[in-house]
Each structure stands twice: as C-alpha cells, then as structure tokens.
Amino acid sequence: MINKSEKTFSVVYSHFLTPAEQMFLLNEREFSGIIEFEGGHEDVERRICRVCTNEYNKDDGLPIVLYSVKATDKNAVISHRDVLGALMGLGIKREMTGDIIAKNNQAQFFCHQSVSEFVKMNLTKIGRYSVELGESEFSEMAELPKKPVNINVSSMRLDSIAGESFGISRTKAAELIKKGMVFVNWQVCLDTSREIKAGDKISLQGKGKILVSEISGTSKKGRLFVNILKYV
Fold first, then answer.
1. Contact at 8 Å (CB) between 227 and 150?
2. Burial class (CB in 10 A: 0-12, 13-18, 19+), 229
3. Which of 110, 174, 212, 215 has minimal Cβ neighbours within 10 Å of its Cβ?
C-alpha cells in the first residue's frame, strides 16, 4: 500500500481490519505518520487503514458505505449473526464489512465501497425475513446500546477495572491482559497497572466492551465507586 501510494501519488485504503490487526501496524515505527485508521464512526472497532505518503496525494475519499436494513415484517428480530450470515451467504468476505448494529427488526452495517453495489442489488433477505435496504449518512448511525453499571474497585488499574467490569477475578484479568486479549481505546494493552480514566473504552475478547464514565465517589475504606456503560 505504501509503495502504491508513492508510485501513484494517491491515498490508498485497505479493507477492514480488526483491532488486533490495527495494533500490529501501529507498532511498526516505520509507518508512523504514514498510516491512520477510519471506520465511519468513532465508536466502531473494525476500521480501514489509510495510507498517505505525501500531503499532496490525491484522495478519492473514504471507501466506506453505511447501509440500513429493515425487515418488512415488523415483528421480526434480526441479530448481528443474522446480518453477518446473510452477507457471507452472498460471498462477501468478512474483511469487506465493518461493524454491524442490530436491534429488533432493523440493522445497520458498514461495507467497503468496492462491494457496496453488489450488496445493494443482492441483499434482499436476512435469515428468513425479507428486508428493505438503503444507504445512510455516517451521522445516522444508531447509537450502540449501553447498560449503566456501577462497580467498586480498589484502584483505577486496568486489571482491577477489567476484573470488576467483566465479572472475573483481578488475577484472571491480569492473565488475559498479559495474553493480549484486552484492548484500551481499540489498542492492545499489556500493562496490568495502566491507569484508566473517564472516557476510556475497554474491551475483552469474548466478554464484550465497556466505557468508563466517571468516578462517582469513594468509600470510607478508600475504595472507588466507578460508573461504567456496558455495551449490550
């Protein structure tokens, strides 16, 4: 991608990358200042890599489309798995689709522009339900549903916050952090003692994702009451 950007004097975009893949690229110092990541919305995990080797490179724009789908049956229930399955059934590779949000009989998903017209023409059913599909502006992306939860921790260390938030022991949380299974603001964090602050997003593979809202108080024994939002 870097070679292509240099040869064509243009900005080059990749397919969608997982947080782990993004982190792998960010750790390569030689790419510093050349790459960045875009996903269509600040709250998404799957993003594409933007390569720009010169500030004068021609940029054709972010090749991402946001589609909204709605089942014709108002009593239908569409899940994330249903949407992904329908796209895979069309032969669309996972790296060509971004984040998917599904609720009740509606869903939204990002897809790469290179397959957007094919999806638009062929995605007529999700699961057993017929659906209507239309393109949406990025600003129309539905807010990811979150559930407010209050936790009580001894400190704002990552292992402490992750343990309480995901219902595991602090020791287990520390093990998973060291294995590279915990992400802070979409980046792998191997530091169990990292100080977490309000606004940080933490995700644990297989357990979900949270947003740290605020420290709401302190107990007489010095423990911290922390408000978090758990993505559901």
1. yes
2. middle
3. 215
Cα(176)–Cα(173) distance, rounded to whole angstroms? 5
Report the residue count for the chain.
232
Exposed, middle or buried: residue 1 (CB in 10 Å: 0-12, 13-18, 19+)?
middle
CATH 3.10.290.10 residue ranges of the chain are 146-231
Q: What pLDDT digit, counting tens, does each position of 47-68 carry?
A: 999 999 988 899 999 999 999 9
* Burial status of residue 125 (CB atoms within 10 A of its CB: 0-12, 13-18, 19 or more): middle
Question: What pTM did the predictor assign?
Answer: 0.74
The CATH number of the structural domain formed by 64-140 is 3.30.70.330
Contact call for residues 163 and 181 (beta carbons, < 8 A): no
Per residue in 3-36, pLDDT (tens digit) is 999 999 999 999 999 877 887 888 777 888 899 9
Contact status, residue 131 vs residue 72, Cβ threshold 8 Å: yes
